[in-house]
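ok so for the tutorial part 2 we go from a plain amino acid sequence to predicted structure tokens. step 1 is just haveing the sequence, like this:
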Amino acid sequence: MIPAELLRQSRIESVAQSLREDIGDGDITAQLIPADKHASGRVITREDATIAGRDWVNEVFRQVDPAVELEWQVKDGDSVAPNQVLFRMKGPARSLLTAERSALNWLQALSGVATTCARYADQVAHTGVHLLDTRKTLPGLRLASKYAVTCGGCYNHRIGLWDAFLIKENHILACGSIAEAIEEARRIAPGRPIEVETETLDELTQALDAGADIIMLDEFSLADMRTAVTLTAGRAKLEASGGINDQTLVPVAETGVDYISIGALTKDIKAVDLSMRLD
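step 2 — the prediction. this is what the tokens look like for a chain of 279 residues:
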């Protein structure tokens, strides 16, 4: 889980950057509107979606003009239908129009992540598997994307390189063996989760014997995944990874693995179609 303060600071900084790149030294088109003119409006969705990003929208309007008032009709994680109102707004007309694109960009992108996650999660709801994101995120959007993943009913893998071990082939080669890599991991960061990537059932056995907490089954066949579940017998959590898509997701989930990691949850995202309309 992402620490709340870390997420808050990231949101403030990311929103500020998005406003800098959009507004620059001033919104010249908004200056066509009298400074004292007020307006109201609403944002709707044009398609089915799962919502994520309310706090990012709030932060955009807060940084542009705290005088703007928002009234949300939905919560993060809600499913919405075409033409449904997501929130209403009122305040200085210049501010509403200046903030529009940045606010919608955040809501569209994060709701796109949540919508994709909800679609995948629905497919495996009959199993006990947890779907995990990966570090395959758009640069600068790591924490926001991982938050959106949880709004869609999926789960976060490690946040970055600092909060958990993921020992891969090259780490194992450099350390000498799976056992030596795990032993060194315990020495330098006691208590941190240790995951080992394996490509064969023999490597799985080595990771089990060395006491790995989580074992990744990289590109295993369905038959080998079922064998791995039997061999492991609850001694470690098993994570399936590699090439998981709409066609392979359900069969993999039904092998009995604990987790499935899917890079597409955060890297192959289509923004949700939204529209802001002034009254």
